Amino acid sequence: MTEAAPTTAPSGRRRWPKRATLLMQYLLLQPLIIILCLVVLRIPPPEPPSRYLVTDFSLKENDAEQRVTLPHFTASRHAMNNPPLYRGRFIWPGGEQGAWSVFLPRFTNGVEVAVNGVVILDSRRNPAANRPDRNTPEIAVIPASLLREGDNDLAIRLFIWGPIRGFLDRLYVGPDAQLRPSYDTRSLLFVTLPVVFSAWQAILAVILGIMWVMRRHEPAYGVLAAAMAIGVGQAFFQTPLEASAFSRLNAILISAAPLESAFVLSFALLFFGWKWPRYGWLIFVPGLVVAATGLVGDAKLSRDAFLFVGAPAVGLYLIALALIVGHSVWRRQDAVSFMLGCALTIVLTCWALDLLSVLQVVPSRRILLARLSYSAMLVAIGAGLTWRFARALNQVDGFAARMVTLVREAEGKLKASFVREEERARAAALARERTRLMRDLHDGLGGQLVSIVALSERGNADTGIGDAARAALKDLRLVIDSMDDIGGDLMLALGSWRERVTAQLRPHDIALGRAVGPQGLPVHPELRPWHVIQIVRLLDEAVTNAVKHAEARRITVSIETITDAQGLARGRITIEYDGRGFELAPNAEAATAGPHAARGLRNMRSRAARCGAELELTSDAGGTRVRLTLPHRFPDSDAAAG
Amino acid sequence: MSVVSDQGASPISILLVEDDAPTLWRLQDALASAGFHVTSAATVAEARASLARAGPKVLLTDLQLPDGHGNELIRETRLRYPETEIMVISILGDEESVISAVTVGATGYLLKDAFPTDIAATVRELVAGHSPISASIARFIVRRTQSTAEPPPGPPLNTAKLTPREIDILWGIAKGFSYAEIAGHLGLSRQTVPGHIKNIYRKLEVHTRGEAVFEALQQGLIRL
Hints:
The structure holds two protein chains of two kinds. Chain A has four domains: about 20-45 and about 215-370, no CATH class; about 55-185, Jelly Rolls, CATH 2.60.120.260; about 395-485; about 485-640, Histidine kinase-like ATPase, C-terminal domain (Heat Shock Protein 90), CATH 3.30.565.10. Chain A has 13 helices and 19 strands. Chain A has helices at about 15-40, 175-215, 220-235, 245-250, 255-270, 285-295, 300-330, 335-360, 370-460, 465-480, 490-505, 530-550, 595-610, and strands at about 55, 55-60, 65-70, 70-75, 80, 85-90, 100-105, 105-110, 110-115, 120, 140, 150-160, 165-170, 170-175, 510-515, 555-565, 570-575, 615-620, 625-630. In chain B, the strands form two sheets. Chain B has a five-stranded parallel β-sheet with strand order 2-1-3-6-7, sandwiched between helices. A two-stranded antiparallel ribbon of chain B has the order 4-5. The termini of chain B are far apart. Mean pLDDT of chain B is about 80; it is low at about 1-10. Classes of the chains: A alpha+beta, B alpha/beta. The interface between A and B is large, with 47 and 36 residues.
């Protein structure tokens, strides 16, 4: 039962006032329930019209005759051979009034009814009627041939076999149609309802048994199942009247109540997480004693044992149960304890009233309700278990939902880390390839190009071979540089580019200015080496134009981040230079510039398009501006190249 | 080509180690015409002999030499002649060649195809205590300062000694900012930035015995 314990209950004294409030509420509620019970129980069970009452009888008991008025308690507890005989009379008006009946709302233990000397009813043949703990009514139709107009004799023999005194409630003789409704209501309340409850108990016993089998670590279920099973046995097997082959075995059933309540007490101890007391098994002793007397002694002895050992034990256990549940209300503050506690109060009240009634301490009509109210507790237990079950299901659902979320999260993380891993592996492979290529170029092509530069300078400086070789070296450096992992920061690529351009411009005595906006350029994780090469070559092309065609004196590079119409951050690189401008033809080609420049412009446009960047060219006599607006996201594939 | 003025009474002596004759002539011409006193060597053995004869002020060496690797020469020179400034002659100025030379004691690099004026200017700056650095070298070093799961390819580098300020300077250089701009950003004097570069190179140098073993392994890697 550990999972039922409120694990979230905050520790210590902080919750003390709240606990105390709850316990106070609980304790105040119990007297209310008791009062409510008393009020409800004062409502008399349904009775026929009082004009059909027959109350005046002469009683012959133990050879002594006296006049009595019903209801009446006999003096003896046992009278089978010489039962008390009640004689009375009723008036049948005669005529066509339909059938007449004798209705006995309540009696203990058995009755034999005779009208005008003819026996019309023997309740001992009805097993349900033989149980003093059930308030079984009896009704018998008087055969029309027996009835005489005017006075009719009514003789009732009351059989008493203990364990309590005989009792005969007020009885009715009248038209069957008038008496039967109250008989039906009473038999519904006191005969059918207990059967229904017992059936319920049987089902619960099976369910709890299954629960216990499936969850052996929770013995409380098993104990409760045993209690229920005993209750069912007690309800459906009948106590014997005549000696039979099974009478001794049946006698054990009388011990059902104390045994059952002992089991229920054990259940409560286990359910509410109590440590099993060392002499805990002692609570089963009264039940076993009663069972033993049933086996060894005669029926009377076993019934007496029940009355003097069993019944008090039941009461004692009920009180213990109430204390345990009360403690649990204090400690666990949960709905299960609260409800069980209230149900228990009802049972206790009924048990106390029954005891007072049996001992004739208070005037009563001997309607015993303890057994019936026990089913109230059953309802509480059933409701509690259902509540727990639903809560457990909710917890499972919540747990499952949480697991699904967790699994999804983990999946996402895994996927992300897989992508990251792939990315890293790709970057590492690229870096390795670059290193290999770099060594190759360094040892081979690079050295050869340097030799060409040196040789050309030594021979004839004007051949242009040296410039070409230098340009090749520069391009080689650009390719190697672009393959480096710059983490999507184009600023790093532009750093190297600036260095190269500075070196390129120094012999031409052209000033290079640079302005970087506060944000620099946005970082593009999707940036690939080929993007970098395209952009750097485009910028190179612009610088070359400035040097070769415009004869510029000053070149300015501006780097900034702008926000476009969609509100996206985009990088912008602007190269402005003075010198000779050129006119742009309508097709945006340089009309006045030579064919070389025209090709250069075409190249710049195609490079910009391949990177998804926008190129904007403006040129006039005062100078030229090349504005490259980078895409918000660089394209994955080089579509324009295909 | 501008004519470089005389450097004073005693010209700066340079030992130039380069096995490719045209390149050697080219560099020699550029340096000699700038007023430096240049001695040349084509092999490691020649260079050792030359070093033993007269400790030069500056050592300029290629890496791939017929009888050995330039880094051996750099390490030896660094140990025996701590006063000598060392520069590596690189074809591409790539981190592979430059960083490996820096870790054994070089404090600068020179591109083989650099213009003669730039060659002379770079050497003069080096003598003045200003080490050259390229954006890609700076980028390589700062990326090594960032922790990664696996060591990136390329020569191993211990960047633990670098201060945050030095790393900031390297970032600035990697992104193409000029020394003046970096100095402005970091609140430094413009003149101190080149000195910081030399300090950075010195901090990347491998000194200890254990580091030397590690570095030997690195040599193996480079010779692959």
